[in-house]
Predict the 3D structure of the following.
Amino acid sequence: MHAGDQAWLDRVNEDPVDADQPIVDPHHHLWPPEGPLFYGVDELAADLVGGHRIVGTVFIECGAGYHADRPAHLSSVGETEFVAASADELARRHVDAPPILGIVASADLTDVDRLDEVLDAHTEASGGRFRGVRDALARSEEPEAHRIPGINAEGKAHDPAFQAGVRRLGERGLTYDSWHFHYQNRDFLELARAASETTMVLDHFGTPVGVGSYAGRHDEIFETWRDDISAIAAMPHTVAKLGGLAMPDNGFGFDAAESPPTSDELLDAQRRWYEHTIEAFGPERCMFESNFPVDRFSLSYTVYWNAMQKLAAQCSAPERDDLFRGTATRVYSLDD
């Protein structure tokens, strides 16, 4: 039995805290059987209909389904085609499952001369679901210590061509998502300053690292991270996704435990990261995200959403709606 296996996840069973709260999950992935972590429509549907009231989702690029036989700058359009077909299959085969409403695709934002061609191709392939691009900044200082190492170009956020590409997204009404590590939060801040007309989405709290030389240093990291998050939040065009802290590389050790955490145990370990981000950005610029199936290495879908419902219990009804549904719907134009 291994972390992430259904039998391991089933060692902790919880009923939904609030089965009536509408939820948009703004961050999940899909991979075909030959992918690095198989998660198809059947697996997604099983999580989505597990008890909470999920009303829609947004797929985030993960390198799935690329076309090797196309020009390199258009190969990522294969992923959008794969997800659009998966969305149609989900609707056809799992009538009780909520729809995939949005797709955040991949594109090389430094390739400014061909960027519009790529964005047009994603638009055409998406079946009306294309909402933005994630061209991640993540570059690990110690890739050998990471389960998911970031191998993007050094200094990418400061590249004038890349900054121009991010600005072009805003000009076209598209969003920019970034996955990166906590020691790159200042790079994301500088990128946000260079692209003030583009909605900038901070994924996974800027991924506080807890492995390699950062193992056991959460308290120390939190101090610098807190200031960086406040500085990013001061930029009004930035928004934050609250989730992805259960990845093995965050170093909380859930994936190495005999049983997965309960929702209370998750909050005991991670509450301060959530509370500071909500305080800095405000609920109207925060959205809870599952980051499944990557966070599935550490916890179940139901446990994650229960933890978020317990966390948000002291918020007003409008604030809870923003955190669970409203912010994601506005940022990704899901009502369009």
User: Anything to note?
Assistant: The mean pLDDT is 96.
